[in-house]
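User: Just a sanity check before I run the rest of the batch. Below are the C-alpha cells for the first item. I only need the designed sequence back.
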C-alpha cells in the first residue's frame, strides 16, 4: 500500500478500511458460528485454525491503513504522536470495557439471570449506541 493517494478521490486508505470492515463482520460470524458444525474434534480444530487465519488477514486489512491515518492529520511529529497515543488509549479502554461487559453478560446468562433474547437485545442495543 502506498502513502500517496492513488485514485480520483484522493483517498488511499479508506477503501481498505471500508471493505475490510464489511469482511470483518462475515469472518467474525464464521469464527463463532460454524455452519454446519464440524462432526469431529479434528474438523473443529481445522475450522478454528482456518477462520482464525481469515480473521487475522481481514483484521490486518483494516488495522494497517487505520493505524497510518495519523499521517494525514499532521506533518508535525509531536501532533501525530499525540493522536496515536489518544487512539491507543481509547482503543485499550474500549477493549477492556467490552471484555468486562461481555464476561458479566455471559455469566448472568449462564446462571439463568438473563434470557437469551435479552442477551441479544443488550448486545445489539450496545452496538447500536456505540456506533452513533
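Assistant: Here's the designed sequence for the first item:
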Amino acid at each position: 500500500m502506498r502513502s500517496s493517494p492513488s485514485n480520483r478521490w484522493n483517498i488511499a486508505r479508506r477503501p481498505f478500511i471500508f471493505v475490510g470492515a464489511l469482511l470483518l463482520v462475515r469472518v467474525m460470524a464464521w469464527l463463532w458460528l460454524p455452519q454446519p458444525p464440524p462432526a469431529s474434534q479434528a474438523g473443529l480444530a481445522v475450522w478454528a485454525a482456518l477462520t482464525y487465519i481469515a480473521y487475522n488477514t481481514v483484521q490486518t486489512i483494516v488495522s494497517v491503513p487505520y493505524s497510518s491515518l495519523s499521517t494525514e492529520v499532521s506533518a508535525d511529529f509531536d501532533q501525530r504522536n499525540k493522536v496515536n497515543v489518544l487512539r491507543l488509549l481509547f482503543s485499550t479502554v474500549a477493549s477492556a470495557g467490552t471484555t468486562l461487559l461481555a464476561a458479566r453478560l455471559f455469566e448472568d446468562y449462564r446462571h439463568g439471570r438473563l434470557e437469551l433474547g435479552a442477551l441479544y437485545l443488550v448486545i445489539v442495543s450496545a452496538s447500536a449506541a456505540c456506533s452513533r
